[in-house]
Amino acid sequence: QVQVVESGGGLVQAGGSLRLSCAASGNILRINAMGWYRQAPGKQRELVARITSSGSANYADSVSGRFTISRDSAKNTVYLQMNSLKPEDTAVYFCNVVVAVTAYLSNDYWGQGTQVTVSS
User: Fold this and answer.
1) Which of 68, 63, 60, 64 is nearest to 86 (CA)?
2) Alpha-helical runs (H) found in the chain
3) Are 34 and 47 in contact (CB under 8 A)?
4) First CA to last CA across the chain, in angstroms?
5) Per-residue pLDDT for the chain (120 aa), expressed as one digit of tens each?
6) 51 pairs with which residues across the strands?
7) What is the spatial distance between Cα 35 and Cα 50, in angstroms, rounded to a whole number?
8) CA-wise closest residue to 80 among 3, 41, 22, 33
9) DSSP β-bridge partners for residue 32
């Protein structure tokens, strides 16, 4: 079993910043990738940013240049630094972790989400 816990969400005004954290624990052989997704009411879940074990990162066009994803592999933790926040960034942000639970099996795990609300 793998547990994924997000933190760092909150209420900020437009133009402000937040830093989200996501820590994975449990039966982890290796984390192959970690990413952030978000879902606003009435909308589909969308990729915000992800980073692989090799350090390659990719971002949604809507956040590129404003958000930065980083990782601390030793702590099985990924961060999302969010700057210049906009009201349209308001959503529940979910951490996704692609975990090698054995030498032969990888699975996706999701956190419960952390609410980010950006007021105008």
Assistant:
1) 63
2) none
3) no
4) 40
5) 899 999 999 999 999 999 999 999 998 889 999 999 999 999 999 999 999 999 999 999 999 999 999 999 999 999 999 999 999 999 999 999 999 878 888 899 999 999 999 999
6) 34, 57
7) 4
8) 22
9) none
Kindly state the DSSP code that residue 119 receives in the 8-state scheme: E
* Listed residue (82, 74, 91, 93) closest to 35, CA to CA: 93
DSSP 3-state assignment of 35? Answer: strand
- Tell me the two tokens of residue 38: 């978000």
Tokens of 113: 């989400």
Pairing of strands 57-59, 46-52: antiparallel
Fill in the DSSP letter of residue 84. S
Q: What torsion do the CA atoms of 89, 11, 112, 86 make, to the nearest 10 degrees?
A: 10
- The count of residues in the chain is 120
**In the block, which residue shows the tokens 């989400």?**
113
Q: Do 108 and 37 touch, CB atoms closer than 8 A?
A: no
Is residue 29 within 8 Å of residue 43, measured between CB atoms? no
